[in-house]
Write a structure and sequence with these properties.
Layout (H helix, E strand, L loop, with lengths): L4 E4 L5 E4 L1 H16 L13 H11 L4 E6 L4 E9 L3 E6 L5 E5 L3 E5 L4 H31 L14
Antiparallel strand pairs: 1-2, 3-4, 3-7, 4-5, 5-6
Length: 157
């Protein structure tokens, strides 16, 4: 058996970790990395009223992606909105396709608002670090710009 590793907690109390504990923690981490996330589950079917409201909110001539209950996925621009269906012009087909709201299982209308907020914050942080780095490097180059003046000799008593 491997010797226990001695450590101390934040309170200064000695804590002992055995090799078995390390094996359990490693096994849990491997299991967490192998198990697929919950977000990969199939989307819940939407009702026709929700699909109609989201299509109306998206508006005509805007792109959407829809998954139908027969397994077909369509990606195109909305060209007409009706009371029980909407019409798409697919990007790879010039012929328009009419989709009933009741047939839609999943509807994707583009990046969410949170994505754009995150992107803006990330760009701001990157710009801040770039400015800080430029100023820091500029100040480092300016530190050694003074002329070398020999020091005055110390008087001997």
């Amino acid at each position: 058996m491997a010797p226990a590793v001695r450590s101390s907690s934040a309170l200064g109390v000695p804590v002992r970790f055995s090799a078995g504990l390390y094996a359990v923690v490693a096994s849990l981490l491997i299991a967490l990395l192998v198990v697929p996330p919950v977000a990969s589950a199939k989307p819940k079917p939407l009702d026709a009223a929700t699909v109609h409201a989201r299509i109306m909110k998206r508006g005509i001539d805007n792109p959407v992606a829809v998954a139908l209950n027969n397994g077909v996925e369509l990606w195109g621009r909305i060209i007409a909105i009706h009371t029980d269906s909407f019409t798409l012009r697919l990007f790879n087909d010039p012929q328009p396709v009419t989709v009933n709201y009741a047939d839609v299982v999943d509807l994707r209308t583009g990046p969410a608002r949170g994505f754009w907020i995150f992107t803006g914050v990330a760009i701001g942080v990157a710009a801040g670090f770039a400015i800080w780095g430029f100023v820091h490097v500029h100040n480092l180059q300016q530190q050694n710009q003074l002329p070398n003046v020999p020091a005055a000799p110390n008087p001997v008593p």
